[in-house]
Amino acid sequence: MTDARSEKTVTWTILVVRTGGFAGLRREWRVSSRDDPAVDWPALIEACPWTTRYPPSRSNDRFVWRIEASAPPRTKKATLPESSLTGSWAALVEQVKSAAAR
Amino acid sequence: MVYGIVPPYLLARIAELDDEKFAHAARSARRALEQAAPMRAARLLFSLDESNNLVVEVGDGPNRTISDAANSETLPGMEVRREGEEPTGDPAADEAYDGLGATFALFSEVYKRNSINGAGLPLDATVHYGEDYDNAFWDGERMVFGDGDGEIFRRFTISVSVIGHELTHGVTQYTAALEYQGQSGALNESVSDVFGALVEQYTLDQTTAEASWLIGEGLFTDEVEGTALRSMKAPGTAYDDDVLGKDPQPAHLDDYIETDDDNGGVHLNSGIPNRAFYLVAEALGGNAWERAGQIWYDTLAGPLGEKSTFAEFATATIEAAAARYGGSSRETDAVRAGWTGVGVTPEDIA
């Protein structure tokens, strides 16, 4: 059992991979929670619905997002269509892209 | 024969012509106006008969509406150009309008298909989707085009092959409905590349030998070392850039990419059937939209399973070629050789 304070000291590695799209180009962003300690990474990660299974998209040529967060021995993985990249997922991905760009 | 898309206001003027020389044209225009929904254009086919009389035949016409998302991700956005209206002056909106018309023309004039669903479905598109959005997609109802980021990608309407590609996803949705996953997904992508390329070739009146066989030519900015997103003639050679890396498309089944990304690599493995189509077109020569394109269209519109594999699709193309041109025809031989050339062995045909 970890309390909120000790949870914040855990180091998470977050990988975001965008594939598909008309161009079929692969883009990848990777950060460690230590890269930007001001961000509450555990809260961002916990807010995401990791166990949700998304139905196949009716769309063609939209992006596919694969998101992985790991803090061994814990690993969370999700694959979602672009149309589902909203709310907590969008918040996490934007933060990862922003931190990775620094 | 000359083809032209005649806007409603011009149809109305032709319909009112009171000169015996144009009696046939006036009748055709009146019939088009009676048949067409309000604001829909008709396609009139103009020719001269042996006595030098003007002969006008009524054909199907597109019903296009272009909307502008104003860099939001809200669809459809605000309507900026409807069928028959003058150009807006916005290159993206006007390229989308013209590209939809070019794609409609290929399917209508060559394959006698009236729009996406074969029954005159309106063609809707949205431009300026999102901010710096590096993509174009078909959402099941409309085509959506981003502006690109200006650093790697230009606007996605810049290449008519992209517009043809997206609209063909609609045609596939209403015909074979190839599942967008794995090999059937790669076939779905390939069929869109095939007809996207054919729209460009038909528009430019290019033979197989003259055509670039590139998908998305002109999309990359000058900063990128590459000519296009994909090459049907030589998959894997469209770009080789410090930032983007090398075009990863395989050209042969031996190099098929197994991956969970991109719905099982649908934009990667499409290189294999793309190359097969190119080989068929190259073997037959002339205009690719005629025989090679007709065989692929017959296959798409025929009894093809939603989960078709490359081998099953190959078999279907051979059967389509045999049905139209004969089992021992040059066309059927070319199709067999095309698939052999990319390592795909068609299933036994009864």
What is the topology?
The complex is a heterodimer of chains A (102) and B (350).
Chain A: H1 4-7, E1 13-20, E2 27-32, H2 41-46, E3 63-71, E4 74-81, H3 87-101
Antiparallel strand pairs in A: 1-2, 1-3, 3-4
Chain B: E1 2-6, H1 8-15, H2 23-35, E2 42-48, E3 54-59, E4 64-68, E5 78-82, H3 91-110, E6 123-129, E7 136-138, E8 143-146, H4 160-174, H5 182-204, E9 214-215, E10 230-231, E11 240-241, E12 245-246, H6 262-269, H7 271-284, H8 291-300, H9 310-325, H10 330-341
Parallel strand pairs in B: 4-6, 6-8
Antiparallel strand pairs in B: 1-2, 2-3, 4-5, 7-8, 9-10, 11-12
Helix pairs in contact in B: 1-2, 3-4, 3-5, 4-5, 5-6, 5-7, 7-8, 7-10, 8-9, 9-10
Describe this protein's structure.
The complex is a heterodimer of chains A (102) and B (350). Chain A has one domain. Chain A has helices at residues 4-7, 41-46, 87-101; strands at 13-20, 27-32, 63-71, 74-81. In chain A, strand 3 (63-71) and strand 4 form a beta hairpin. A 4-stranded antiparallel beta sheet of chain A has the order 2-1-3-4, covered by helices on one side. Chain A is an alpha+beta fold and 102 residues long. Chain A is built from 3 helices and 4 strands; from the N terminus they run αββαββα. Chain B contains 10 helices and 12 strands. In chain B, the strands form 4 sheets. A 5-stranded mixed beta sheet of chain B has the order 5-4-6-8-7, with helices on one face. A 3-stranded antiparallel beta sheet of chain B has the order 1-2-3. Chain B folds into 3 domains: 2-59, no CATH class; 64-174, Roll (Elastase, domain 1); 182-341, Neutral Protease Domain 2 (Neutral Protease, domain 2). The A-B interface holds A 17, 19-26, 56-64, 66, 79 and B 134-140, 153, 156, 162, 165-166, 169, 180-181, 188-189, 192, 216, 219, 229-230, 244, 249, 260-263, 266-268.
